[in-house]
Amino acid sequence: MENKLSIKLNIGSRQYPLSINRDEEEQIRKAATLINERIRHFKDNYAVRDMQDLLAMAALHFATADKIRSHENGSVDMQEEKAAEIDLLLSEYLENQ
């Protein structure tokens, strides 16, 4: 049985097709929802309308929040590894566009 699943995520009004492990689907979909909620928050509360700026602000928000939580929980390496995996997936997708 194939353990991979192909999904499409909508993040910041763009669709990203991903191939993920089936057991990661819920976590990845929740992450996309959190990112979109943060983008909406910045859009509603600040005079920023450019999607690239909103994505950068959301990334900064999560990177700093994760770093603080990671230090508190002692799991910095795992968080950095997951962030690197997400970065690689998005980079590969953008290169193929």
Quick structural gist:
This protein is α+β, with helices and mostly antiparallel strands.
The total strand number stands at 2
Order of strands across the main sheet: 1-2
CA distance, first residue to last residue: 30 Å
Order of helices and strands: EEHHH
- Stretches where pLDDT is under 50 for at least 5 consecutive residues are none
Percent of sequence in beta strands: 15-25%
Number of domains: 1
Structural class: alpha+beta
Measured as a percent range, the helix fraction is 55-70%
Overall geometric form: globular
**Tally of helical segments:** 3
Main sheet overview: 2 strands, antiparallel
Gyration radius, in Å: 14 Å
Mean pLDDT: 83
Detailed description of the structure:
The protein has 97 residues and is of the alpha+beta class. It has one domain (4-95). The chain has 3 helices and 2 strands. It has helices at residues 25-45, 51-73, 76-95; strands spanning 4-11, 14-21. Strands 1-2 form a two-stranded antiparallel ribbon. A hairpin with a 2-residue loop joins strand 1 (4-11) and strand 2. Helix 1 crosses helix 2 (51-73). The longest helix has 23 residues, at 51-73. The chain is globular. The mean pLDDT is 83.
Could you give the topology of this structure?
Elements: E1 4-11, E2 14-21, H1 25-45, H2 51-73, H3 76-95
Helix pairs in contact: 1-2
